[in-house]
Amino acid sequence: MQEVRTKDAVGHVLCHDITQIVRGGVKDAVFRKGHVVREEDIPVLLSIGKEHLYVWEQVEGMLHENEAAEILREIAQGSHMRATLPKEGKIELIAEIPGLLKIDKERLHQLNALGELMIATIPSGMVVKEGDKLCGTRVIPLVIEEEKMLAAKALMGDKPLLELLPLKKVKYGVITTGSEVFKGRIKDTFTPVLVDKMAAFGCELKSHRILDDNHEEITSTIQEMLAEGVELVLCTGGMSVDPDDKTPLAIKNTGAEIVSYGAPVLPGAMFMLAYTKEQTPILGLPGCVMYAKKTIFDLVLPLLLAGIPVTKEWLASLGDGGLCQNCEVCHFPNCTFWKGV
């Protein structure tokens, strides 16, 4: 940092904010730290009493905060993201498409532990819209050793810290089970809920069947839907442990690999997930999905659409925070019930 006369400061980079106070309570920076002084700035600076300025002195081996921020941006930025222009050592990454954000949390922690630089993100696993902010990068000092930034880049390797995974708009099938619905005693109110939830992600209902509590018919119908090319099968009803609840047995008899029958989540404990050999998911959805605001289905669905395998280990991890508070005003996913990846 060096002191120069304001009249001689053109082309130099400010080391601090220049604040202007206006009568009536307005106090703000007229020029920000990192601003490159222009000829037209000189009268403004003189008018607020700045005869001398502290500017950045170019030193070999040192990077200005904005140059260093570009290195952080390169470390963080994956596909389907755009970067803002550097400002005061900060660059933000913005989603260019709707998708699910996946962050390498271990490497992110390693980077932030280095000191003097940081990347702050929204939570990994968050579903975002086009234009949503994903992260901000910042270099703490005005200047930082180039060697430190290059070491950070080498430590992080070539794979970006952030991935924005597109959400596939799948064609899905729904199998509604239960003699009470099959025989017309009650109306099917489950399928409309699923259609609404799936439509929010742009997914299309390809096939819907209402069946009696016959596990052989349920199994064969699942197989028929798979043969028709559905990319996700949702089975509703018959998911409890009552003797006449046949859906878990029907899913098992398709030959699909069972990931889990049951999950440490309320609402949603009686959830079932299986994958076919072709990795098509088959879900057994408990009745709570029909009436509760948010359930296990809302936690799992974005991962399935993003192509992230849902594992038994991940499902087991949901117990910590897996109790929905059933708030009068639902703030999901900005709540303790939401789970990332």
Automatic annotation (TrEMBL):
InterPro entries: MoaB/Mog-like_dom_sf, MoaB/Mog_dom, MoeA-like. Its EC number is 2.10.1.1. Pathway: Cofactor biosynthesis; molybdopterin biosynthesis. It is an enzyme of class 2 (transferase). Keywords: Magnesium, Metal-binding, Molybdenum, Molybdenum cofactor biosynthesis, Transferase. The keyword Magnesium applies. Residues 173-306 form the MoaB/Mog domain. It catalyses: adenylyl-molybdopterin + molybdate = Mo-molybdopterin + AMP + H(+). Its cofactor is Mg(2+). SMART domains: MoCF_biosynth (SM00852). Catalyzes the insertion of molybdate into adenylated molybdopterin with the concomitant release of AMP. Belongs to the MoeA family. This is Molybdopterin molybdenumtransferase. It comes from Ohessyouella blattaphilus.
